[in-house]
Design goal:
mainly alpha, two-stranded antiparallel sheet, 7 helices
Length: 231
Amino acid sequence: MIGVFDYTVWLTYLSLISAVLGIIVSLQQSGHPYIGVFFLLFCGLCDAFDGKVARTKKNRTDFEKKYGVQIDSLSDLVAFGILPACIGNAMIRVCPTISEVPTIHRDERLTFPAVILLYVIMILYALAALIRLAYFNVTEEERQKVENEGRKYFTGLPVTSAALIFPTVLLFQYLMPRDITLVYFGVMILTAFLFVSKIQVKKPGLRGILTMVAIGVAEFIILVFTLGGNR
């Protein structure tokens, strides 16, 4: 059987599984965007540690290392490129409030041209994520030919930042009495631009990773307690 199946890739596989489940939930007729966000947060948690776990195996072959890089990018495209777009699709279809039971309704919030525009934003976002990941893979391979030390800065916003950006946007529903669907898509198009921009983003160290994990866990807990309290 082809592929690698030892512990070094388990977190990456779990991230993909979580992303696919989140996509399925978000595309269901009664799929609610806040449910999809739980899967997005879990993808972010897996991604935070998959590289560190893989590097604990000292005798990895070159094939295993290259395989790990490839599946990480492929998984990231699904988790942080496609899943946020599917959550956006759920927001168009279902009223994204927390206090109400999600129900399918004839959308009176958005005109047909507006809905088409939002779908275009989803497509552009997924395309930007694809370009960002492909660019990173090529430049990282070239960099490793001439440098031995690890990368210190990223060019363009890493796509994995979506794991914190979009849950944070959805949490604003607690502060805003109005539907935040347009806010979500505004942030999506801005994020897509940052993916393919030439901004320099410092690579986080262990402390930075733990801080981001803590933020994600806090968002997860807030969503769990709020959703549970409104049942």
